[in-house]
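Narrative of accomplishments. A recurring question from our advisory board has been how the design workflow behaves on a single, concrete structure rather than in aggregate. To address it, we present the structure tokens for one chain from the evaluation set, followed by the sequence designed for it. No filtering or post-editing was applied between the two.
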């Protein structure tokens, strides 16, 4: 009988979670009793929070139970992702709502991602489509690549500053002022350029076409222009460009094929940043004279579906 390969040699499983609404309230108020008092004083019930917490804990318990005792594993909270070091062969299990996948994706470099939906009554499950009970079968597929699952390579966007700093995004990249001040920059696209003052620029992927970019595209009647998740094409939108004697509003939308770039040079002395997928705490500086180029990334999100 051939020797069994010890599970210690298998890739580490990284379980990514975020604090639940109940956990956030408990952190704020100290105890479950204080949370109940606070909610009831506002005319609300604790019951939905407790039910959501119970479903999450049950899902997490199912995921951990599917791991052999000697299988390497680590759990990391969304708030610690920017400080966590992923191994190249990690298997990343995201347990939570769909938005947690983009939060993790920007820190990954080709690792397989398994999205687990702990609460189908509350979460759609586009990026976390699997029930907790499927986790054991998903791990088996990772090892054998045989079974009912497949690998979906979702396209990402990359922003690259002139000094070499880079930022990846699964949904969208935002460029502009981090407050409500106007974003001022020189935009270049498709051989044209325009100096602009706006509420910032969005560059979105096919995955992002179901989120922030979808909202902008719907307002402008551009839904047909949005890419598909595995299509190597991006779209960009200028948010509320302001025409004046010094700024224009002609270049407010465009598409970026694979290899094409959108270039912005900042003309804002302070407060201008680049961030990805809504994580404003992890940003790249974008101040006067600094230039950024945005295009289709070489990396993809490798999602098992």
């Amino acid at each position: 009988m051939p020797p069994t390969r010890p599970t210690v040699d298998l890739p580490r499983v990284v379980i990514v979670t975020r604090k639940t609404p109940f956990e956030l309230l408990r952190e704020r108020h100290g105890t479950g009793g204080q949370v109940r008092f606070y909610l009831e004083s506002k005319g609300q019930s604790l019951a939905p929070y407790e039910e959501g917490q119970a479903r999450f804990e049950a899902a997490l318990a199912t995921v951990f139970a599917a791991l052999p005792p000697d299988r390497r594993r680590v759990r990391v909270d969304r708030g610690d992702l920017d400080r966590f070091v992923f191994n190249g062969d990690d298997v990343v299990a995201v347990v939570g709502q769909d938005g947690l996948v983009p939060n993790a994706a920007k820190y990954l470099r080709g690792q397989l991602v398994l999205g687990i939906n702990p609460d189908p009554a509350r979460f759609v499950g586009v990026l976390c489509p699997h029930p907790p009970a499927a986790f054991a079968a998903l791990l088996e597929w990772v090892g054998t690549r045989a079974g009912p699952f497949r690998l979906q390579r979702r396209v990402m966007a990359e922003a690259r500053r002139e000094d070499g700093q880079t930022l990846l995004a699964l949904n969208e990249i935002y460029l502009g002022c981090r407050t409500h001040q106007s974003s001022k920059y020189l935009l270049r696209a498709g051989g044209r350029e325009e100096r602009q003052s706006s509420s910032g620029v969005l560059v979105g992927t096919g995955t992002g076409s179901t989120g922030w970019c979808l909202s902008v595209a719907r307002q402008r009647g551009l839904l047909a222009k949005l890419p598909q998740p595995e299509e190597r094409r991006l779209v960009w939108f200028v948010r509320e460009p302001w025409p004046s004697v010094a700024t224009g509003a002609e270049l407010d939308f465009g598409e970026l094929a694979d290899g094409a770039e959108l270039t912005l040079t900042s003309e804002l002395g302070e407060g201008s940043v680049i961030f990805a997928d809504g994580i404003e705490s992890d940003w790249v500086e974008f101040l006067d004279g600094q230039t950024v180029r945005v295009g289709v990334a070489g990396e993809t999100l490798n999602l098992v579906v």
